[in-house]
Each structure stands twice: as structure tokens, then as C-alpha cells.
Specification:
Family: Belongs to the terpene cyclase/mutase family.
GO biological process, one term: triterpenoid biosynthetic process
Number of helices: 26
Largest sheet: 2 strands, antiparallel
Number of domains: 3
Shape: globular
Helix content: 40-55%
Keywords: Isomerase, Lipid biosynthesis, Lipid metabolism, Repeat, Steroid biosynthesis
CATH topology of the largest domain: Glycosyltransferase
CATH architecture of the largest domain: Alpha/alpha barrel
GO cellular component, one term: lipid droplet
Radius of gyration: 25 Å
Strand content: under 5%
Bound molecules: lanosterol
InterPro entries: SQ_cyclase_C, SQ_cyclase_N, Squalene_cyclase, Terpene_synthase_CS, Terpenoid_cyclase/PrenylTrfase
Distance between the termini: 36 Å
Strand order of the largest sheet: 1-2
Length: 715
Amino acid sequence: MGANSNVEKTDLSRWRMKSDQGRQTWHYLKTDEEVREWPQATSDKYFLGLDTGLPALPTPKTPLDSVKNGIEFFSTLQVASGNWACEYPGPLFLTPGFVITMYITNTPIPQEWRTEMIRYLANKANPYDGGWGLHVEDDSTVFGTTLNYIVLRICGMEADHPLAVKARKRLHELGGALYNPHWGKTWLSILNLYCWDGLNPIPAELWALPNWVPIHPWRWWIHCRMVYLPMSYIFTRKHQIPVNDFILQLRKELYPQDYDSINWTSHRNTVSGADVYYPHSTILNALNKVLVVWGKFCPDFVKLHAMRLVKDLVTREDEDSDYTCLGPVNNPLNFVVRYLDDGPDSDAVKMHRYTLEDYMWVNKDGMFVNGTDGLQCWDTSFFIQSMHASGMIERPEYRDMLIRALNFLDDQQIKENCRDQGQSYRHIRKGAWPFSKRKQGYTVSDCTAEAVKAVLFLQGTPGFPRPIPERRICDAVDVMLSLQSSDYGFSEYEQSRVGDWIEQLNSAEVFGNIMKSYSFPECTTAVVTALKLFTQYYPEYRKEDIKECIRKSLIYIKRVQRKDGSWYGSWGICFTYAAMFALESLEILGETWENSGNVKRAVEFLLSKQMEDGGWGESYKSSSTGVYTHHEKSQVCNTAYACLALMHAQYPDRKPIERGLKLIMQRQQANGEWLSEAIEGVFNRNCMIAYPNYKFIFTTKALGAFASKYGDIPI
Ligand code: LAN
């Protein structure tokens, strides 16, 4: 995509990824001496799209030949901390938060970052109109185009650069910056490129409501409340940076109309049709009107009291996550709050400057902010499970690699709860595994579950050390059991704290399903399978609780199956991804194609989607529309999910599975790798995000599971 020919580039052979106890940061080596002392690893070269020089391997004939080649390649991507690493791109609204925050807080942006961030945006601009969308596959939106345009300008691109001219033209065609959704308007207001009066209110006072109030933010989905938390502080303080020449210039560039002539209060609900995914409900519009009036009459002492409460929660979030924060939206917003409240020279500001780096990544297209501070625990746990599925876990040649991975998981389990966790509305975390690294510090149900499975497999294999004692595995089980929601399913971070009606208050406009913790077949399956496996090793611990939890979970899994036999997947694309999980759950119950109507319908659904070449391929539109949508090409990941799903269903006819696996084998490269295909993941229905390691993890898992089931026969 994009026309990047006329932007600068750094010397990619000078970039290195440092992996330190799961903390991943990129460094640009300026001198030749540094380059000599710190050679570029194969993994760095791969991440940067440089030639890895890895040799061609013997041509695979059987599934296990292919698995071995896959492992041979993937083992080169294991990094110093013992985990597998990769980039996590997709969303296009994350880098702006970081760059704008660095601008606001006078944090120097290194020249090599500027160069590479500009290059990334040049590569990701939609070639036909020069704008950017919500994510890399999206058509241009006002949100994406406004914020990324600002990034280009802060990073030093001149307004008359052809890329800037083209992007501006597209922005104006879409109506200009006035048409931004709520989060866009928020960043603009802080930059003094918009007026707070033109924003639907985000009052800090919501946090001062008594906890029993049904709309209290503590009940909202964690990502939603943790974003609105710092926003509410900045909104209530109505902070704007002082106007300077650059800002005056941007006002002219971003708006087709005269900035000073805009009647701000009439534009609170002005949002471009290209941006809206989830329109306001009538109730939300009414509530916003009430809050506008409230904002005018609310006494200052109440506002100040509420801001103190919010500031306390922001501080707790910073400290409990070692300043990493929950994610890449609240991280920079918290930074702004600490800069305003604690002062530019405070330790909090220094810590925030330091942790911004944890989110940055460089690839062949340039530099950008990752979706999280990495996928360290998640990918590592999954790959270990793939090694187990193929039986490769037992081979001595892989032992060192796997022991390093086990030591990583040992180190990364969260060992303490948060300080006064009740006061920060946090769920317990002692015993949990996070998605990324321990210091980020957030319990995730399925990350805990996948790690528990990986640890049990490794520690149960002869020849492996057992660094994680029974007590700590039981702690993980306690966390999992504590997370089941009242609908019997599992969400990712917390139990559901409020009814579905709260979605009516979704004011983000560009995302669906952001207001509460929903249950998901993916998370539910991860927990059920982990608990089931746990009972094989430790049959007595909380025996009855586990039995009851599994029983209820399966009721949930069956309930959310659609009439056509499918399940909607919320984190991977999409129906094939969910089928792989849901059918694994049902298999545990003993429900297979032989004896279960649910499974039969699911199998029929999957078979009806197999493509002519034997593969499966789903477009990201499946996720955003909720209707199965073929990709124009089959995809190795979807094919692997579908094959695994059919194997969990114990579907007796091997043919469709063999056809799928054959396609996976044909797509494998001579050095054992699989190439990137369509984007693999999603969140909030509408924003796509890549899971680059899935093409190694699930391909090798599907091939390995087949060989374990049917023997390693040529296909
Ligand atoms: C993630 C990444 C991991 C993902 C899985 C573990 C794969 C999933 O099974 C459960 C949900 C979870 C933990 C998840 C939740 C939402 C995240 C954190 C993300 C998709 C990565 C980025 C996204 C976050 C919300 C991005 C910021 C956007 C906002 C709307 C705040």
C-alpha cells in the first residue's frame, strides 16, 4: 500500500530489539562500534523484513516433516527472555496518542523515530485517497486521517509535502476535523485544535457516584473505563496547551472553514458517516444534554473532589502496572494527567517517558505503536501447546528451547495482588498470567488458562524441571474460578458487572461492544480446557467447584451457538476461530459428531465454507458485519482453525481435513516459514489487529494434531 518513495528511511540494519524479562524495546545503533558489539539477531532481521539468510530445509512429505521445518524456523524467533515475540500492528489510532502526548509533555522524539513513523504512515496511507482509517484494512475516516496527519506534522513533515497535501484533501472531502468522533475530538481539544464545549461531556463526577449506581464507571468494560478515566480528568480541568504558530497553522490545515467562525456547541454530535460504527442511542443523547447542563451548574468543590478521586485512580493504575498501563490508549492519557497534576519534572513523568518505549515497534514499513506492550505470554503459551499437540515436546533436540520458554512463564506469572485492589476496582491477580508481561499486571482469563496448560504440559514431560510449584498453579486456578460471570461464560479481564443495557451509553461511535465485560466462547473454552487438564494432575483441589464451573461453562457454549451451527469469534477472525474453541469445549463434555446435534451443525457449517482449493479463508468483514464473509483467498490461519475444529469434533471423514492440511503444507516456504496473509485478529468488532505468530502456531498445531491422531502419513 501507499506511496512511500519520497520519504526518508533509516538504515534498518542498525535496529535491534532488546528483550529484557519480557520488556521489549527497539534501539537504533548510531556508531559502527555499537553495531559490532551488538550484532543483529536473526529475529531482528525477520521483524524488520530483512533477509534472514536461513537455509532451505528438506522438502516435507508428511505433516510432521512440515511441523519440524516450522519449528526450525520459529525457533529463530525466540528472544533473549525465552519468549516468542512479534509485532502487533493494525489499529491506526494508537501512534497518534503517543506522538501527541510526547509533543504536549515536551518529551523529545528521537529523529530516527520521526523518520520511521512518517515512513510507516506513508506506507499505510490508502493509495487511492491518501487518508487513513481506524485500522490498516479500513477505508479512510476522519478519525484516522486527522490524527495521523497531526503525527506527520509533529514528526516534521511540511504541510506542502505531497503526502500531506493528499491526506488533507481527503480529510476536507470527509468534512474536515469537525467530523471527528469523540476520542478524536478529545485529542484535538487538548491540542487546542478544538473547543471542549463541542465535546459530549466526560465528567469526572461520574466517579464520585456511589458504587451501587448502575451506571457507575467501575462497572464498565475495563478498557473503556480506563480510557475515560484520565480523559475525564483532562475534560473536567478543560486543559488545553497554549496556542503557538504550529497550532495556528494546523487549525488552518485541518478545517475547511474558518476556525474562529465555528459554533462549537452545535457540533457535539457531528461525526462523519465514514467513522460511525455504533450510532448514539436516544438515551445517550438525552443523558449528554443533562450532563451539559450539569457541567454548567456543578459547584467547583464537587469537580475538584471528583478530580482528586480520578487522580488517585490514575496513580494507582500507573503504580500497579509499573507505568505500563492497561493499554496503548490509557497509557499516554495517564501520562498527560501526571504531567499536569504532578508536574513536568516529577518521577511519574520520568517513568512514563521510560515506558512509552515498551509499546513501540519497528518493521519493514516503519515505526508504530503496538496494540499492547507485546504478546509475550500469549504466543509463548500457545506455541508450547502446539509442540505438545505434535508430540515434539518430548524430543531432546527441543528441550533447551522449551526450558527457556518455561522459565519465562515461571518469571511472568503475577505473584502479588494490587495494593488495596478493592479501591481501584481491580479483580484479583495473584496467580494469573497476563497477555504481555508480568509488570503490566493485568489478569486475563484465557492468558492464564493457556499458560496453565503450557506449564502443565512441560512440567509433566519427563526430563523437564518443575519451577512452578503446585501452590502457584492452584493460585491460577483460583483466579480462573473467580472469573465466571452470571451468564456462565467467561470474559477476558473481569466478571460482568452490569447488564447488556449499558451498551446504550456507548459514546465512542467507532467501536461496538465496549461498555461491559461480555462473555466469549474463546475465553470460556480456554478456562474449561485448562481446568479439565488441571484435574488430571491435581484431582483433589477444589474438585466440586471445578466440576460445577465446567458444567455451567458448557451450558454457556451451547447457548451462544447460532442456529446455523456457528459461533461468533470476538478476538480472531472470526467464525472459524471461534469454532476451533467451542468444539474443543464440547469435546471435553464428550460431545462429538457421533453423538451431538450441536457438533453436527457446527461441522456442517464449517464444511459449507471450505473453499475450492481445500482451504478456508475469512474476511475481516465477518467480524464487523457478524455474517460469515469469504476472503477472496484461502488463508493458512483460517484453514488451521477449521482443521483443528473438525478434529475436535471427531468428524470421521478425514478428507476435508487432509485437503486443508495439504494446502497449509503447500504454502510453507523452503526455510520452514509461512508468509503473512490477511490480518488475523479483531477487537470491539470493528478494529482489526495482526497476530503474526498465529501462522506458525496454529499451522504446526493442526499438522501435529493430525499426525498424533492418524499417524504421520504422507498427505
Ligand atoms: C487484546 C489482546 C489480547 C486479547 C486475547 C487474549 C487474544 C483475547 O482472547 C481476550 C482479549 C485480549 C486480552 C485483548 C482485549 C482488547 C485489547 C487489549 C486487545 C485486542 C489488544 C488491543 C485491545 C485494546 C482494547 C486496544 C485499545 C483500544 C481501545 C478501544 C481502548
